[in-house]
Specification:
This protein is α+β, with helices and mostly antiparallel strands. The protein is built from ten helices and 13 strands. Bound molecules: adenosine-5'-diphosphate (ADP) and magnesium ion. It catalyses: thiamine phosphate + ATP = thiamine diphosphate + ADP.
Length: about 325
Amino acid sequence: MGEFDLIDTFFTHRWPARDDVALGVGDDAAVLNVPSDSQLVIATDTMVSGVHFDEQTPARAVGHKIAAVNLSDLAAMGAEPTWLSLALTLPEVDEEWLTSFSHGLREICEYYDCQLIGGDTTKGPLTLTLTAHGLVPRGQVLRRDGAKPGDWVYVSGTLGDAGLALACQQHQQSISDSHYRRVLERLYFPSPRIALGQNLRDVASSAIDLSDGLYSDLGHILKSSQVGARIDVDELPLSLALTESVDADTAINFALTSGDDYELCFTVPESKRGVFDTVMARHPAKPTCIGRITNQPEKLRLEREGEPWQGLDKQHGYDHFG
Ligand code: ADP
Ligand code: MG
């Protein structure tokens, strides 16, 4: 199968189509109709085989995740996802792998009404690069640099589950089969918090998605906003799978330092909390308040019952060149 048959077979037929795509896959470039009252928000993420996933990762999960990690970036900006383009580097044409991979990617496109508008296909070590485009009403984007002293710090979902799954895969932890299935689902099929991000446009002063671990990612908000934070480690939202599998301090360390959660961390000013609670009343899973922004630039203070918590492991978050 050649390059063009491959694109035709796996990335063209029965994929969702949007009205705002004037020209999609098949020409030299895609042409999109961008509404004049919106701003275009663009994110790119790469997954390299052997670095971000390994051979045991199902191809459907790889397809899901390359989209999910990019949509998570759009969620953190408050954007509505619209268009994706995919750069695919493959060592060979493995039709079985491509079928499952394209299913995983197509499912998430269907769910979020995104259209695959183009890409590139090359031969080489298995690598996926996806660029996600989204729209946000002009001036309403969520950024990292808006947190102010006194704002409340929230996170969505539960933290540390994907990290626990990875630790189990690497034989650093061993847990029950049922807990393993749960956390593996979180590692393989993360849910980008798209609806939450859009609902935060009017209420959050800053936001970031959690890809490298809360400790590291909240640090980016603190640096961009030139503020500090106090976090109560007992308030961190932890799943039963995590708390029943490891001791309390290990669970907190997973929640703070392990990556791949793809939850949102954001700050809400006191004056917006009423609106926030009203908006969140409609959400199935209300985000958890874990602390407060302080006026000490870049100082992240971890507390338990008001006292400093000293249980943090050395390595915080993943840095490719660190
Ligand atoms: P060119 O040679 O002009 O760069 P290509 O041959 O790379 O064009 O691609 C032909 C068409 O197929 C383009 O519209 C491109 O966007 C699309 N395309 C290529 N690879 C992919 C892919 N992996 N997924 C989706 N569309 C793709
Ligand atoms: Mg061309």
